[in-house]
Hints:
The protein is mainly β. The chain folds into two domains: 16-303, no CATH class; 320-539, Tumour Suppressor Smad4. It is built from five helices and 40 strands. It has an eight-stranded antiparallel β-sheet with strand order 28-29-30-23-40-39-36-37, with no helix packed on it. A five-stranded mixed β-sheet has the order 2-1-7-5-6. A five-stranded antiparallel β-sheet has the order 10-9-21-20-19, with no helix packed on it. The chain is elongated, with a radius of gyration of 28 Å. The chain starts with 31 loop residues before the first strand and ends with a strand.
Amino acid sequence: MFTELRKNIKGDNPSPHYSSEWLPSIYKNLIWRLELVVETPSITNLDADAFWSKDMGGGTITEKHGNTQRRLRQALTDHCHWINRQHPQSRKLVKEKVTFTDVIVCTHPDVYHNALITHEQTHINALLHNLTVNHENDFQASLPKNRKPRYLVNPDQRLEKNHIAFLFGPAIYIPDPGEPAFQIVLSLNGMPVTLPDVEYWRDGKNHKLPISFHAKQEFLLLTPEDGEGFIAISGWRDESRKAYLLLRRIGEDQWVAFLGGINQYFEPRKTSAGIWYFTIPLDQGQTLTLEITSRATAATPQHGAGKTIIFDLDDSASLYVLKLEAVGLPNLFRGLRQWTLWLDPEGGIAPPDMIHDQRQLASLSLNQGGLIFTDASGVSTSLGKNIDQPREIALSPTTQLTLLPSPEGLSHFIGLLRLPVPDHYSISEDFATIGRSDPNGTDDSPEISLDQLDQPGSILGHDFPPGITLNNLGLSRRHAQVRVHGDRLEVKKMEQRHNPIYHLDADQKKIGISQSDDPLLLDLDHYLVVGNFILCFSKNDD
């Protein structure tokens, strides 16, 4: 039901957004681990400024692999989270860099416990406070809204005494004090597995907290007993050293699990007692069962007696999106004599503010003689009555305009224009309205406004009101409602008169049409046609 968080970013064509990363990948980049080798005074004094940046002093500190320049600030700068944010004017989703906020500081147990017996725990309290201040000051512009940096210190017996490690990333999560949590019960091959309480220092106190899944948490990472994560399951053995279990909450009362290494997804069943129950076959004939309570209860940490893992995706990105991949080129009908669609230099749809001099823009137009392509220099080419097969037209030496045949059953189109860069619209379990904006600027505009074809002067015909554009043809202001239902898209028609909604499968073959109150249900990678817009229901792989 969900893809890996960062799919194939280290493959043959890595995303430029992640090109600056230099830390070794842990479980497909679910965790980043910066380990520093520190001289004795700095490690015993827990000097936050020295760990943060070489510019702030602190003597000789070397990244584990030998680099003397890279410290925590550089690691957080080069390893970040990219989200999709909807641009307020264009409504398109754009990439936005967000700095991770949750950081676990790991020290050797002797360093940790020695810090606890110093007067008023001066060193450890100053470490957390100063790291938080440095983090907030240096990354103020790229921190997520409503979530400030948060640090805790955890003893790690795997570290040498003069080493310190910092863990951050999508699978690192530090809950708010008292944050409600779902209780988790594990068993391996039918035998109960006891997860150790997490010991850590935070807010001037030493805590022990049971491992659970917190209310604002999205991911929980579990690993074999010799794995690299913080929450290791005793008895789970993995010779490949690639296995991990990622538990994800995808809705108010919905869960899914992904078993890394095998790359398999699992959905739970719900018992009559309201418990979510996973059965997960592991390597070497092992079976892991995992139970989750269906209601979060208040967490009650014990004071005076190690860690939390996971990341709160407090951003506007959704697990699912609608991608506007193409627009239909409408056929002429009674009263419509001609339409024109102006193109931007990349082969997409030109926005209205670009249509100030139509002679400098390429265009597609349809009249009684057929479809015509006119390039930016004014040279026209006839393309016939219909697009019968895929066709590419050169806009420039490096840019092609792509035209496709109309899907079977959509005879009101003569073909499709494939967009070079699809627009993305986030969707969730709440209904969102699809339609076109009100030109009068009222507050009743739809959540998903499809206004790309709202180009002035784009149609000629009889009995059309002043100001009408190609965008008005077949698209209502409140055309349909959509929401994610499980892992499918539910679509409800809002207009009872004309303007049907079409459902196409992954091969763009028509399999459904809605002209009534009956909703359509679309599987992933199926298409929704509203007005002249062809939208694909997809996973949001940012």
